[in-house]
Amino acid sequence: MIKKVCFLLTIVFVSCNCNSPTIFTEEALSEKVYNLKDESFLFKDILAKNKGKKILIDVWASWCRDCLVGLPKIKQIQQDFSEVAYVFLSVDERTASWKRTVEKYNISGQHYNLPKGMKKGDLVRFLKVSWIPRYLVIDENGKILVFKATNAKDSQITKALKS
Hints:
- By secondary structure, the chain is α/β, with parallel strands linked by helices.
- The chain has helices spanning 2-15, 26-29, 43-49, 65-80, 95-104, 122-127, 155-162; strands at residues 32-35, 40-42, 55-60, 85-90, 110-113, 134-138, 144-149.
- Strands 2-1-5-4-3-6-7 form a seven-stranded mixed β-sheet.
- The N and C termini lie far apart (49 Å).
- The model is unreliable at 4-17 (pLDDT under 50).
């Protein structure tokens, strides 16, 4: 019996696709995001705006303590890699809280909100957002280099920005 259970578990683990995606799905690219002026854009417009640059995406929320704790490290990365585009995607459902926090912490970069929160929407579904903060690094051509970093100090982030 134990051998059968072990065999089944092995099959399940081997058959799982644990690879991180390197490109966004069309559904994720078509997700609506809103800037600080409440203007709507498609996520693909944000990537197109930054084409030719590496992009560090920070998925965060104003109510997330870990997100706020990671901000000093992000600010240090911004100083070390000034040529990188910094895109902050908030999953705040309360836009006023999001806007206040951006101002309070003087967060530099491009700011967008996913008003459906972190549990709904094609982009958060693609990203499999179960924990924030969440960091992604996108290369100059839109390829995802880092998909699932959850700590701003993750060495994958620095390595991808240097490459």
